[in-house]
Amino acid sequence: MAQQIIIADDHPLFRAALRQAVSQAVQGVSVLEADTIAHLQGIVEQNQDADLVLLDLNMPGAHGYSGLVFLRGQYPGLPVVVVSGSEDIQIMRRAIDYGASGFIPKSAPLPVIAEAVQKVLSGDVWLPKGAAEKIERTQGEPEEFSERLATLTPQQFRVLGMLAEGMLNKQIAYDLEVSEATVKAHITAVFRKLGVRNRTQAVIAIQQMELDPLDTTLSGS
């Protein structure tokens, strides 16, 4: 059976480059593509036996590391490699802390990306040259919030993302095609699992997942 890799990135040109690198790395590979976190969730739910996800942290619907934490919590057997435009060692460290199997800078040439994919598929963790030693010196413990975030169901995670975007219950219900009562039930469950009391606390909590700790915007980009 052909190996299956999911590419999650909102830039078509970079998805095409990743597809090319993946095709070089794995003969006969089946590639699926997602351009938003919601799209990615749908693909993973239908393809839970996929072999690897290549994940851009800056996608519509994502709040920094939240997509990574969710995937690792809901699908622990599915390796996730972060593919990022940043080469900041602290971002790499946090990605590994949150369960990533590797970190590929977008500036890496195609042969290097192909090598990284091969390494992760064989069960190794891949990092840029010299990064592993720096990460070991700064290794930290994942925050308690990330463990709580990982317990959310796919639908609860979608609702949390919509809350963070400032959407009202009526808007969330319309987008998810469910009743407002169902949305309220999801919100109650989200608050309980995250240990927060209201929307404001939930939004502040999800900001902890942003790439830049100093960035307090709610943008998904």
TrEMBL record:
Annotated InterPro entries: CheY-like_superfamily, EvgA-like, NreC/VraR/RcsB-like_REC, Sig_transdc_resp-reg_C-effctor, Sig_transdc_resp-reg_receiver, Tscrpt_reg_LuxR_C
Key words of the record: DNA-binding, Phosphoprotein
Listed name of the protein: DNA-binding response regulator
UniProt GO BP: phosphorelay signal transduction system; regulation of DNA-templated transcription
The Response regulatory domain, residue ranges: 4-121
Keyword Phosphoprotein: yes
Residue(s) carrying 4-aspartylphosphate: 56
